[in-house]
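Example 268.
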Amino acid sequence: MTRIAIVGVAGRMGRTLVNAVQEDAGATLAGGIVEPGSSLAGADIGELAGLGKLGVAAVDSLDAIADDFDVLIDFTAPQVTLANLAFCAAHGKRMVIGTTGLSGDELAELDGYHGQLPFVFAPNMSVGVNLTLKLLETAARALGDEGYDIEVIEAHHRHKVDSPSGTALKMGEVVAAALDRTLKEHGVFERVGQCGPRDPKEIGFATVRAGDIVGEHTVMFATEGERIEITHKASSRMTFAKGAVRAARWVADQSNGRYGMQDVLGLG
Ligand code: NAD
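Predicted structure in complex with nicotinamide-adenine-dinucleotide:
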């Protein structure tokens, strides 16, 4: 049985993760962490998640539950996640990280932990999205250098703080890698005013932020006469949460290293 603690347990994903752990026969809820000084410290995490009392009180520091858990699931913010990686490396824990919006420097810092603990880092934990990444690789290889323009379009709820989404960037990276391109050179993240005709090799990104959209991604391959669109739509955060719990069970048996959902799902 994998003992799981959830950091950011009062957040949108945190509350959903409590539900997903409770539903998983191979995992047990070992703790929940809220922000230091939060008035929610001491609250029952089952009640926070709308499940009724589970007998596990939220704490506001990892130290308080250091002996209680094996794997930490973290869907918070970049600097919080990096601090938690240091804690888990020092205490022999494993991690599943869903936090997005890390800068280049923050990603390099995260990567530096690959020899210190086993951890899964993925901008999207849904099984469907990870299969979609495989489909995109195939489509890009067949179409990308044959006159098809590639555009990535994503939509999320009004509270999302980073843009484009980590998933949209991952989709762009997969397509770029399949075509020997890079997002640094070929990614186009803004088109305003007289920006001229499209470069055939560019990979464009467009972002929608509105209402309560959980997460929608489309990659379009368009040429004269036809257009192929590969779309994934998440209708509930439970899809990400279930993937994260599956990753936690999986990473419990791995040796030190940085892994992705493709590894967890055996699609690597
Ligand atoms: P949210 O704002 O609802 O939740 C984040 C929570 O983290 C908040 O409750 C906040 O209080 C808490 N927090 C902040 N600092 C903390 C600290 N030091 N200790 C403990 N808790 C702390 O946001 P959300 O919608 O749940 O998303 C969180 C992150 O997960 C974002 O980066 C989002 O993009 C990402 N996300 C990833 C996936 C995926 O599949 N990988 C899916 C959905 C969201």
